[in-house]
C-alpha cells in the first residue's frame, strides 16, 4: 500500500509559492522566532503577516505542543491527519516527531496509511482515536454515532475537545504547507531515509 | 482615555502618525530611502484612507499628522485632502518644494487658514552641493518657492539632510542665515542625518540605526503599518519589511496597539520555542 515516492535526499527542493521571511526581513513582531537563525518554513511564511503570526503561532504552539493530552496521542492525531490530507511536509516532519515520541515503525507506517491500522493498533482507546481522526478529517456532516460513542467512551470531554481542535489545526497547517508548496527540510528527508521511511 | 492617549501623555509613545501618500517623485535624490523617482511604482495611499487615518488618529489621542512620500504634491488631490486631514489634527507635509507654480500656489492658498505646515528639503547653503544630491536647479527652485508660500501665509519649515562631514560649522551658519533671510525661524529648521536604507545604502551614505534608536512614530503606507517613517523603505525595488508592524491598517487602533506593545517591551520570544517542525 506504499504509494508514496521513495526519498531522494539529494533531490532539489521545490520553491515555495511565497517568499519565506528571513532574519534580515522578519518584521518586528516576528523577530523572536528568527533570533537563532532561519526558523521552520511555517514560521517563516506566517511572518509575512505579523499581526496574524502574533496570534497564530502561540495558538499553534498551544495546540500542537505539550499539554494534558499525552504526546503519543497528539502525534497519532497529527501524523494521521497529515497523511489523510496528503501533506508531504507535515507527514515527513511528523514521521520523525512520532518516532521520537516512541511510536513504533509499523505504527508510524499504519498512521501513514501504508499498513492496515486496525491490525497494528490494538489498544481500544487508540482505535477509537484513529476512528475519530478519520471521521473528522475526511468526513462531512455529522459523525457516525458509533464512532462518536467509542471516542467518548475512552476519552474525557476536555481531551475530546483538544483532540478535535488539534485535528482541525493540523488540517489548516496541512493545507497551508501543501498550498504554498513548503518543501520538507533536508534534515527531515535525511532522517526519513535513515529510518527507512518514504517521504 | 485610550491606552494610546495615556502613552502619548506620558511621553512613551510619540504623538505623530505618518502616512506615505505616494512613492513616486519628480526628483531622484542620492540618499532617498524609498528609491523614489519619476518612473517607480506609485504605491498610492487613497485620499479617503488618509482622511480615515487622521480621524481615527485623533480619536485615539494622537496629536498630529505627518505626510510624506515620494513627493506628495505630485498628487492632484493633495490640497483638498490636506484640508480634510487637518480638520482632525495639525498636519505637516514633507515636500521637495519644486512643484509650486502659480496654479498649485492658488490651490494651496486656503491651507493658510488651516493647521497645515510644509517642510521643504534644503541640504546646503551652496547651490552646487545641494543640487549634487537633489538634482539640477533644485536650490534655485526651492529658494524661489519658500517666500511665495510664506507670502500666502503658509507655515514653512526647512529640513536639512546630510552626512555630518558635509555640513561643517560654517556651512551650518550660512544655511541658518539663509533660512532666516527666507523668513523661516530657527525653531522651524531641522537638521537630520541620512539613514542608511534604500538608495542611501546602495551608495554607502548615512548611518545604520537599530529600531530602538528611531522614534516609534506609527507610519502607514499602502503596504501596511511600520515602526517609523524610516520603515517602509525600498531597496532594489523591494519593500523593506524589517520595521513592518502589521499589514492591517484599519482600524488604526490595531497597529497602534501593536506598536505600543512593542514599545512597552513585550517583544514576542516564546514563539521561537514552540518547535514547529
Task: Describe the protein.
The complex is a heterodimer of chains A (199) and B (277). Chain A has helices spanning 41-46, 50-64, 71-84, 88-100, 105-111, 117-120, 124-138, 145-154, 157-179, 186-195. Chain A is mostly helical and 199 residues long. Chain A has two domains: 28-64, no CATH class; 71-195, AhpD-like, CATH 1.20.1290. In chain A, helix 4 packs across helix 10 (186-195) and helix 7 crosses helix 9 (157-179). Chain A is globular. In chain A, 38% of the residues are buried. The model of chain A is unreliable at 1-12 (pLDDT under 50). Chain B is globular, with a radius of gyration of 19 Å. Helices cover 32% and strands 17% of the residues of chain B. Chain B has helices at residues 3-10, 47-60, 78-85, 102-108, 127-134, 138-152, 169-181, 198-202, 253-263, and strands at residues 16-20, 64-68, 91-95, 116-121, 155-162, 189-193, 219-221, 224-226, 234-235, 238-239, 244-246. In chain B, helix 2 runs parallel beside helix 3 (78-85). Chain B has a single domain, classed as Aldolase class I (TIM Barrel, Alpha-Beta Barrel), CATH 3.20.20.70. Classes of the chains: A mainly alpha (199), B alpha/beta (277). The interface between A and B is medium-sized, with 35 and 26 residues.
Concise account of the structure shown:
The complex is a heterodimer of chains A (199) and B (277). Chain A is mainly α.
Instruction: Kindly name the structural category of chain B.
Output: alpha/beta
CATH architecture call of the largest domain in chain A: Up-down Bundle
Multimeric state: heterodimer
Most extensive protein-chain contact, per-chain counts? A-B, 35 and 26 residues
Which of globular, elongated, flat, extended, rod-shaped describes the shape of chain B?
globular
- Spell out the CATH superfamily of the largest domain in chain A: AhpD-like
Number of self-contained structural domains of chain B: 1
Q: Do you know the CATH topology of the largest domain in chain A?
A: AhpD-like
Helical segment count of chain A: 10
Helix content of chain B: 25-40%
Helix content of chain A: 55-70%
What string gives the helices and strands of chain B in order?
A: HEHEHEHEHHEHEHEEEEEH
Largest β-sheet summary of chain A: none
Q: Give the tally of structural domains of chain A.
A: 2
Low-pLDDT residue intervals, each spanning 5 or more residues of chain A = 1-12
Portion in beta strands of chain B: 15-25%
CATH-scheme architecture of chain B: Alpha-Beta Barrel
Amino acid at each position: 500500500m506504499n504509494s508514496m515516492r521513495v526519498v531522494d535526499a539529494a533531490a532539489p527542493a521545490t520553491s515555495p509559492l511565497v517568499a519565506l521571511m528571513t532574519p534580515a526581513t522578519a518584521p518586528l513582531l516576528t523577530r523572536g522566532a528568527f533570533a537563532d537563525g532561519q526558523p521552520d518554513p511555517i514560521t517563516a511564511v506566517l511572518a509575512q503577516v505579523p499581526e496574524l503570526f502574533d496570534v497564530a503561532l502561540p495558538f499553534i504552539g498551544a495546540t500542537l505542543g505539550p499539554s494534558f493530552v499525552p504526546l503519543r496521542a497528539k502525534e497519532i492525531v497529527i501524523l494521521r491527519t497529515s497523511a489523510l490530507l496528503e501533506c508531504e511536509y507535515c507527514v515527513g516532519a511528523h514521521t520523525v516527531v512520532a518516532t521520537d515520541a516512541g511510536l513504533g515503525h509499523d505504527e508510524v507506517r499504519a498512521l501513514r496509511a501504508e499498513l492496515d491500522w486496525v491490525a497494528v493498533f490494538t489498544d481500544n482507546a487508540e482505535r477509537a482515536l484513529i476512528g475519530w481522526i478519520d471521521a473528522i478529517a475526511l468526513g462531512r456532516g455529522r459523525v457516525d454515532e458509533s464512532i462518536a460513542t467509542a471516542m467518548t467512551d475512552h476519552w474525557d470531554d476536555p481531551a475530546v475537545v483538544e483532540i478535535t481542535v488539534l485535528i482541525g489545526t493540523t488540517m489548516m497547517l496541512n493545507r497551508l504547507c501543501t498550498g504554498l508548496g513548503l518543501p520538507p527540510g533536508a534534515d527531515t528527508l535525511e532522517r526519513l531515509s535513515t529510518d527507512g521511511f518514504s517521504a | 482615555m485610550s491606552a494610546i492617549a495615556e502613552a502619548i501623555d506620558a511621553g512613551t509613545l510619540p504623538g505623530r502618525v505618518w502616512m506615505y501618500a505616494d512613492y513616486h517623485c519628480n526628483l531622484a535624490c542620492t540618499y532617498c530611502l524609498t528609491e523614489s523617482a519619476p518612473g517607480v511604482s506609485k504605491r498610492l495611499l487613497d485620499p479617503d484612507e488618509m482622511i480615515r487615518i487622521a480621524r481615527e488618529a485623533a480619536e485615539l489621542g494622537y496629536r498630529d499628522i505627518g505626510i510624506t512620500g515620494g513627493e506628495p504634491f505630485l498628487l492632484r488631490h493633495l490640497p483638498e485632502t490636506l484640508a480634510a486631514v487637518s480638520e482632525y489634527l495639525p498636519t505637516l507635509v514633507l515636500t521637495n518644494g519644486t512643484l509650486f507654480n502659480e496654479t498649485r500656489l492658488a490651490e494651496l492658498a486656503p491651507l493658510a487658514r488651516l493647521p497645515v505646515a510644509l517642510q521643504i528639503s534644503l541640504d546646503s547653503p551652496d547651490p552646487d552641493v545641494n543640487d549634487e544630491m537633489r538634482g539640477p536647479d533644485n536650490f534655485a527652485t526651492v529658494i524661489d518657492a519658500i517666500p511665495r508660500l510664506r507670502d500666502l501665509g503658509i507655515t514653512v519649515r526647512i529640513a536639512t539632510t546630510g552626512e555630518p562631514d558635509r555640513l561643517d560649522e560654517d556651512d551650518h551658519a550660512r544655511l541658518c542665515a539663509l533660512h532666516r533671510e527666507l523668513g523661516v525661524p530657527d525653531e522651524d529648521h531641522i537638521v537630520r542625518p541620512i539613514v542608511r536604507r534604500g538608495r542611501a545604502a546602495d551608495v554607502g551614505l548615512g548611518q545604520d540605526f537599530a529600531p530602538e534608536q528611531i522614534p516609534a512614530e506609527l507610519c502607514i503606507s499602502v503596504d501596511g503599518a511600520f515602526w517609523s517613517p524610516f520603515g517602509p523603505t525600498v531597496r532594489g525595488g523591494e519593500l523593506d519589511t524589517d520595521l513592518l508592524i502589521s499589514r492591517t491598517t484599519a482600524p488604526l487602533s490595531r497597529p497602534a496597539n501593536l506598536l505600543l506593545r512593542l514599545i512597552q517591551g513585550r517583544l514576542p520570544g516564546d514563539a521561537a520555542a514552540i518547535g514547529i517542525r
